[in-house]
Amino acid sequence: MYESQHTIRAAHALHLIEVVKRWDVRGDELLAGTGMTRGALAHPLARIPIPVLTSLLERARRLTGEPALGMHIGLQTSPTLYGAVGFALLSAGTIREAIEISNRYGRLVTTAVTVRLQTEGPVASLVVDEHADFGSARDIAMMTTVVALWQISRQLTGRDLVTSMAEFAFPPPARPSELEAQGLRMRFDRPANRLTFDARSLALPYTMPDAVASQWAQERCQGELDVLGRNAELAARVRGLLASSGGSARGLEEVAAAMNQSPRTLKRHLRARGLSFSALRAGHVHERAMTLLRSADLSLDDVARRVGFTSVRNFERAFRRWTGTSPAEYRRTASARSTD
User: Fold this and answer.
1) Do the strands 123-130 and 165-167 form a parallel or antiparallel pair, or are they unpaired?
2) pTM of the shown model
3) Which of 15, 64, 82, 235 has the most CB atoms lying inside 10 A of its own CB?
4) What is the pLDDT of residue 3?
């Protein structure tokens, strides 16, 4: 079972805004209704809940009409998107060293997925393990992750991984031939999401190795991990107070009062940590709705009421805006996935 409260660097939302410009989609159009602004997302430590990210990904797919959106996001990814972790990767000596750095500090990028190295004889694999429910945007998130791994390795080594192949645990999107044309072989309906390549590539040298810079970057990563821990405590406290006895999420005034603070003070404390009350609340409502929909004992009316909607119709509209699918369809998909 997935745990809630998984987050990702808000820089990924800004990156998505840049990617969808290719289809003439404006940033304010993508962020509409989320309560987030570009200014808040630009805070170096800002993070957003995974349910909010999945809403943005699905909205981006609808607005662009691009079924293989994850491929485009991954191809436009560079190490600097990952902040301090990216700078540590840039100064690494080899692919193997970069993987070790990623494993050590990956939580700074996201807690929703981890990447682990497997070697089986001459074949190495970077396997993506999922720790959060990406809902109907799962294919976008996984394709982004795997393609980004491939793209960053090319940028940092100046060459392609030998015999590399991307494998995905979902059906192919429309126009799969376009994916092959990008230079990366892809296979779908596989047991796991992973990037496979010749194990000898693990020793490929990076183009800008710098031991001193690597040490500095990793010290900064460790410092940010300490800050992330403190920020996570505040975020967890707010999330814990969002749930009211009636089921609907509490507002800013109620949560602030429960913390013996004014709403302005609470917002200031959150903003200083790169957090947003509106994003935390949206993530809570979205996550709770998806959790309740997995229960076959609750009707859609029950779920709508428990997450604070006065009618099923309003709930269905909001849920489709979040995920790009209806609550009923999400329930069927989640049920089928649990029996696999």
Assistant:
1) unpaired
2) 0.75
3) 82
4) 41
